[in-house]
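We emphasize that the prediction below concerns an isolated chain of 236 residues; any contacts that depend on oligomerization or on bound cofactors are therefore not represented. The input was used exactly as deposited, without trimming of termini.
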Amino acid sequence: RRATNKYFAPYDQPAPPGHCTGGAIDVGLLAPNGKPLDMTSPTEGWQAAYTWSDLISPEAKSNRMVMVEAMLGAGFSNCRDEFWHYSWGDSAWAVRTGERECPFGWAYPPILLEPAVESEQSLEFHLNTERDFHGRPLRCEGECRYPLPMESPPEGTAAQGVALLWARDVPVDLLLRLPDAAMSEPLWLHDGREQWLAAPLAERAGDTARLVFSAPYDRTIITRTPPPPPTPAPAA
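Result of the prediction step, given as a token string:
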């Protein structure tokens, strides 16, 4: 919270600032050649901030109005003290447009699969995620093809395998297609640090293992790398 408030206004309040909620954006206007158009001359800095300033040149005012009309026409509202600041869905937008509520809520990232360690191997996968009205994931199913290593990695190196991201506590039904039809080693779920769980196999046939489980971690690694042996208790 201290790090956030060093650069942004406090977010944990009844009407949090728009930039902290994703409801506000700072906008500029570019010419066809990609260069910024003049919206401030001959003033500088905060002297040019007021949207309806009478201190700016006719050209700057004309350019500024192009942006105002485009953004207001798209449903945004403007903070009149900052010509570049527009918002949709935050508390300031609600006040300016007469809305009674703001669509605040958590943003839920997409559930993904990736190699657990950096590798040149490509990861083929397809996932379907069912979500509720607010975007919260309810369940996920799909399949993945990835060559998990046959041998355990050297001691002290990271567990290799498939990492399931952003699915903590979400029911997952995953078909994992492996390269070796005769592969019979157990699979494990790992948090990338110290926690290991036996992977709950619903079925296994040929090169396919089907796992049905609730993901226990934000980043759940599915691996054939076994957990390290327990550290022996010190001698009395």
